[in-house]
Design goal:
heterodimer, A: 133 residues, alpha+beta, Thiol Ester Dehydrase, Chain A, six-stranded antiparallel beta sheet, 3 helices, 38% strand, elongated, B: 127 residues, globular
């Protein structure tokens, strides 16, 4: 039995990105680039504020895909383009809203086109995933 | 600028890494992933990006100018605690657009002779 339908728009999920979650991701991933933690440094290199690691944003979208598929073990392919940095001001919870459309379906796999937005602006482009059913 | 002769060459990783339960659990927790004993889909970046960095820095590129352009993973076998891997990195392409150097590196995480995960990172070195 297939739980998806071709063309179906799947329920969105909201993830919170804040300074504390960036520190947790930096520690877990090993990416300690100061542009993701240090506001003065980020501004000194021309950014509007601290920005989220692109791979953190993509990782949260990966969690969405794992949840859709029922387990991270089902995820076969996952890709994204980093089109817009996610600025994370101090003491603000930035909402990342993720949703997906089923664009391909066989007995074995489902393929999703995914959108990821912050404040209604797309932050990732060409975001696609293939999962085993 | 990257030596064009390096495009297509593969740097074979000689050091094997044993993936720890703590490392997977910390990464999964940071992403809100409830399955903390299974590597999330993007976990391979913790291994592949470091090798890409040393490879490209050794090849003369300035890592302080880098921006991640895009990223793809192909997962043949999920990484779990205790998986022993080596990482081979291939510079697949390099081009210059408006003074920015755009390099794509494919990293293959090899477990027991088989590719478990391939990770493609397109990195933009700003002019």
């Amino acid at each position: 039995m297939n739980i998806f339908k071709i063309g179906e728009v799947l329920p969105s999920k909201t993830y919170i990105i804040n300074r504390a979650s960036l520190v947790a991701y930096a520690n877990a991933s090993g990416d300690q680039n100061p542009i993701h933690q240090d506001e003065a440094f980020a501004k000194s290199v021309g950014l509007e504020n601290v920005i989220a690691h692109g791979m953190y944003t993509m990782g949260l979208v990966g969690q969405y895909v794992s949840a859709l598929a029922g387990s991270s073990s089902k995820v076969k392919e996952f890709s994204a383009r980093f089109t817009k940095p996610v600025a994370v001001p101090a003491d603000v919870d930035v909402e990342l809203v993720v949703s997906a459309t089923v664009v391909e379906l066989t007995d074995e796999i489902a393929k999703f086109d995914i959108t990821a937005t912050c404040n209604e602006v797309k932050v990732l482009g060409m975001t696609k995933a293939v999962v085993h059913l | 600028m990257l030596n064009p002769d390096l495009v297509g060459s593969t740097f074979v990783g000689t050091t094997s890494t044993t993936i720890s339960a703590d490392s997977i659990a910390a990464f999964a927790r940071a992403l809100g992933e409830p399955e903390t004993q299974l590597a999330p889909p993007t976990y391979a970046i913790t291994i592949s990006l470091e090798q890409s960095q040393s490879l490209l820095v050794d090849s003369g590129l300035d890592w302080s100018r880098v921006v991640h352009g895009d990223q793809k993973f192909l997962i043949n076998k999920q990484l779990v605690p205790g998986t022993v891997i080596t990482c081979n990195s291939t510079i697949e392409s390099a081009r210059v657009v408006a003074g920015n150097e755009i390099v794509t590196v494919r990293s293959d995480l090899i477990e027991a002779g088989e590719v478990a995960v391939s990770s493609w990172s397109t990195l933009v070195f700003r002019a």
